[in-house]
Structures are given as C-alpha cells and as structure tokens.
C-alpha cells in the first residue's frame, strides 16, 4: 500500500497546480481559527466576538468545524479528477501498465491516495478543533471534550466517499472538467429522484428517505447542519427546533457501501476499456 501511495504522490507533486490545490484544500479549513478570533464592531455600540458566543464550546465544536470544513473538499476533488485526466492525456496510464503495474494496483493507488489525504485532513481538523476548544470552551472535563468525536469519523468517511465518487467520474469520462460537471448533473438527478419518490409515496419524509440512499445525499447526511442546534442551545424552550443531528452507523454504512461500489466500478471500467 505504501509503495502505491508513494508512487502516486510522486506524480502529484510533479505538478505545480496540484501542489497549490493540495495546499489550499488543507489550509482553508483552518479559516475556522481566524473566524474564532473575529470581533465585529457594530458602529461602536457593542462588539460581537464569535468565540464568546459559545459556538466553540465542547462538544458542539466537533460538529461545527467538521460541517464547515467539509465544504472545502472541492479543491482536492479537482486534484482527484486531474489524477485520472492527466493519466489519459499524458498516456502514463498505459506506460504504468507496461512497466508492470496491474490494473487493480492502478485503481488502488488512486484509492489509497484518497484515503491518505482524507486521513491527513481529518487529523488536521481534529487538532485545530481541539486547540480552539481548549482556548474558548468553558468545559474542560475529558468526558465532555472527547464527546461527539464521532463527527471526525463521519468527516473522514465523507471525504473518502466524495473523492471516490470523483475518481469514478474521472475514470468514466477521462476529462477533469467533464467529471466535475457530472457532479452537478448527479445533484440534479438526485432531486429528480426525490420528486419522483414524492409522487409515488405522497410524503416528503419518504422521498427524503429514498434520496438518503443516493451518493451525494448520503454523504451530506453524515454531518447535519449545526445552525439549528445552535438555536436550540440559545432557545431551549423552542421544541419545534429539535432535530436529530447525531452521526448514525447506518449513514456511515451507506457511504462506505457506495465507496466500495465506486471503487469496484472504476476497476471494471479500466479492465473493459481499450487503452
């Protein structure tokens, strides 16, 4: 595995564009550190400091940081699809196979690299969240600090699933721009399936359940939006705001299932395709 990852890293780091995109994809999630220190002055009447609002308290901070950091995954998604696009445009995929790399190892080298970068990104966001929480949180008990760290697992699985989807589209279309465009088309297709399910079952709840088994929606469902949770913390008597924001095992299982399917389909495409 390390050999395949090392091989892929050597290819990626030869490109200055990839270096920049990788750097951005890892640095941008740390903007939460900047946000935590922002002070907004309202015309001299009062100053609003985000860090003093309680949004960086343990354990809710694990939820907040992983949710917002996940939106920066699109930068590394460009790297993933370019990994495949460059292999075809530069004819290196054929050369790799001639040099003795099997088709299975070729796909696994891409997948292992995805796992490596996803794990690295998860560790970075974990460290950043821990440090911000230690500085701002009014809770210092270990059982509270490490409660809800399952959001980190959900974050990792979400990254791996999304990048594997990009890998599949890259293999399917062989062009980076088309692969990224297909992500948008898949988003539209999932909403069309939602409306079809709504027509069939007659309720939005059942339609959302059906949509929850689809790739993009299942990945989004891993970490629910935390805004409503923050409102509940500020207005605990508002029962209508209550919702289920927890990370569930079956949501992780759905995304892992899609990840396995997409890796398998990528390999099948490569085996059947004339290089």
TrEMBL record:
Record's protein name: ABC transporter permease subunit
Keywords annotated in UniProt: Membrane, Transmembrane, Transmembrane helix
Gene Ontology MF: a single term: ABC-type transporter activity
Transmembrane segments: 20-40, 60-84, 111-136, 151-170, 177-198, 249-270
Gene Ontology cellular-component annotations: plasma membrane
Coiled coil (UniProt feature): none
Lineage summary: Bacteria, Pseudomonadati, Bacteroidota, Flavobacteriia, Flavobacteriales
Domain of life: Bacteria
């Amino acid at each position: 595995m390390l050999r395949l990852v090392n091989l892929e890293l050597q290819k990626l780091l030869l490109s200055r564009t990839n270096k920049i995109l990788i750097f951005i994809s890892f640095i941008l999630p740390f903007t939460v550190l900047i946000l935590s220190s922002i002070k907004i002055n309202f015309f001299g009447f009062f100053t609003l400091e985000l860090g003093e609002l309680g949004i960086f308290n343990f354990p809710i901070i694990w939820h907040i940081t992983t949710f917002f950091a996940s939106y920066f995954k699109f930068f590394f998604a460009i790297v993933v699809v370019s990994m495949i696009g460059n292999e075809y445009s530069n004819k290196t995929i054929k050369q790799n196979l001639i040099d003795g790399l099997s088709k299975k190892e070729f796909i696994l080298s891409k997948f292992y690299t995805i796992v490596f970068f996803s794990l690295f990104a998860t560790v970075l966001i974990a460290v950043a969240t821990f440090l911000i929480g230690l500085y701002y949180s009014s809770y210092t008990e270990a059982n509270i600090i490490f409660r809800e760290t399952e959001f980190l697992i959900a974050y990792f699985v979400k990254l791996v699933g999304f990048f594997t989807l990009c890998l599949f589209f890259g293999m399917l279309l062989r062009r980076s721009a088309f692969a990224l465009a297909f992500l948008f088309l898949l988003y539209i297709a999932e909403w069309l399936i939602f409306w079809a399910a709504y027509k069939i079952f007659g309720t939005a709840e059942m339609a959302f359940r059906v949509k929850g088994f689809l790739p993009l929606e299942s990945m989004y469902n891993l970490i629910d939006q935390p805004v409503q949770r923050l409102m509940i913390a500020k207005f605990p008597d508002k029962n209508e705001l209550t919702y289920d924001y927890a990370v569930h095992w079956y949501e992780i299982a759905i995304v892992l299932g899609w990840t396995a399917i997409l890796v398998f389909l990528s390999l099948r495409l490569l085996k059947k395709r004339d290089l």
